[in-house]
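Researcher: Here's the sequence for the chain we discussed earlier.
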Amino acid sequence: MHTPPIVYLRVNRVDAALCEQAREVTVADLHESTAPLGYPGLMSSRMRRITTGKIAGPAITAVCQPGDNLMMHRALRLAQPGDVLVVVCQSETSGAQWGDVATHYAMQLGLAGVVVQGSVRDVDTVTALGFPVWATRVSPSHPDKARAGAVNVPVACGDVLVCPGDLVVADGDGVIVVSRADAAAVVGAARAKMRKEEDVIAAIHGGAAVWELSGAAAAYAGLGITERDAAYDDA
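Model: Thanks. This is the structure I predict for it:
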């Protein structure tokens, strides 16, 4: 995705109350709840949690040139408390886009977390600080601060389109992006799914089997599979 040098100073953010509700559910629940939309928004499995934590908040975006994180810093300066900074570097193995100094500023600001298609560094320190980071690479490589890019434009991150203001949720399973237009319906469905699963778990603790509760037994019964009361190698 070619992006000309430009910085948008404003972002139309997903509703803060929805972000708070999204923190209550998992990425898995949100992903399942996007079924009516065709399961969009789940980032590539290359995007992994590097430190700790779970986040949900509106996206602010930065597009950085290879080996350079200047535009990440411009986006960070424009960020607001609760935002999720989504950074795309056009060469993932070049200069690190995130590190300990940026983390200290982000924590003072109240940034929710960072998602980076590219390299991050100072992982031990950032982990000890408890700041949530997802990335596709880890590398201590030096970044310059000299090249033009873009801030708060639509980006392709982890094979997913991310528009400024979209809902970004990330946990140990990965990262999902939900458009502002779909966020209320998807988060509502995910919360309903979570409550249903809580009922299922309660039933399991009451002695029920997940084989029946999950619907697996009914699906299996319709497949016509032969069962034999014997071992495969009995004479």
